[in-house]
Amino acid sequence: MGKYIKFFVVGIFFGIVLVKSEAVSWYRIFEMFKFQSFHMYGIIGTAVGTGVILLLISKQKKIQTTEGTTLRVPLKDRGFTRYILGGTIFGLGWALSGACPGPMYILIGTGAFSIIIVIAAALLGTFVYGLLKDKLPH
Amino acid sequence: MEYILQPWPWYVSGPCIAIVMFLLLYFGRTFGMSSNLRTMCAMGGAGKRVAFFNYDWKSHKWNLIVVLGAIVGGFIAHFVLSDSTPMDLSEATIKDLTALGFKDAGQSLLPPELFSWDAVLSIKGLSILIIGGFLVGFGTRYAGGCTSGHAITGLSSLQLPSLIAVIGFFLGGLIMIHLIFPILF
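The joint structure predicted for all components is written out below.
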């Protein structure tokens, strides 16, 4: 149990940040895809900018993880088709439901229980991908 | 305290998200929220029928704990750390949404036109939530990640596949909002 507490705490922080930044809001996603506000671009931009710096520092200082391994980001497989097609399908759903997987869970906490329907459908979507995986171009 | 209760500006929120990513990497894991959907499928026994879900999902339990924390965090932020300031959406967005039939844009996190129980119990409303969720679940697994895995973690580590995926996210989002929304609403 003890080893899981740190993950629980990080999760709480993540949930708070995404609600306080309004990134969990359907309206903000609509506004982003309409290019009518800098807000979401500012969030993603500063997140990536800070992320690049943190990863560069940890590489230079050879920071060790709490598991005793070298801190590194798992590499994505090379490819094009799966990323552009999968990405586009995800984007269609993201704009329609206004929620990517992180916000889906967080919204339950805000009392928006109808989001559970979206989560159930996302589970089904994931399952169907698993079924069709070998037949799809990757 | 006042600053915590008000909505947080982007230049505070973005770096905070990077810290979440960094902490998970520091704990020897990684930041990826859509993987939990696969884990939940595997947990439910999908591995018996589909090989893609036949893996050691128990080693991903830590990520489900992150999800539980995120739900609690959502509760705390919404019910404790909030002064109910309405969202500062742009005028143009409010105008466009009104034209599409969305009233009171920004007064709540989600539009009641899609997420209220009245909306959910209509065929159109229910279909939108189900199709939206399905595309998110299918697309993220196909692309091997979502906003957290590709847009934040992948771009922060300068990976080309993630850049391609993020271009896809925007392609899909723009098609939905600019071409499909005018037909739907």
